[in-house]
Amino acid sequence: YQIGYDLNVETGKGERFQDDNNAAIVMTDIAAFVSFTYKPSKKLSIQPAVRYGFNSKFTTTPTVSASVKYDISKKVIYRLSYGMGYRAPSLKEMYLNFQNINHNIQGNEDLKAELANSISLNWLARWQNINIQNTLYAQQIDNSIVAIFNSSGIGSYTNVASSTLFGLSTQLDITVTPNFKLIATIDLIDSNTQSD
Question: How far apart are CA 96 and CA 109, in angstroms?
């Protein structure tokens, strides 16, 4: 099993930050997580995990993930994975007004936190010096944070109500010598975005 935590503290102050009193803006993000691996057989392993966090400016949501790996043989492996994700906006996205000759982007204090769900199926096959890996995946994100620019080139961060992503990735590895490997990758991606 594995137990851990992460801590992130952001502090911003200066003319480019939106604060009328010129006071420092601080955001703290603390999280703890636990995961373990259960092997009911030599070929099957299951790894669940849970993460819970605290954010000083946003209400957090517990997230869970799980993966199931099945070794058909030493040369063929299948893995099914599911995961939830949570991301609070950064201070830059909320408060920083960045302007120079090439950029003009404004922070947005009304941003919401992102919530995501993803699932993937991975298949790996090995033959002597050749590896082939295929991954089929899908991801759905609520309140995705993106930068939107108007016709004048002025941008601001905003939330996209819902976005989905579907993909298929294939990678071929050929080991020619112990010091030389050829790698070819093909990615097919389709996305759909809905705004309020």
Answer: 10
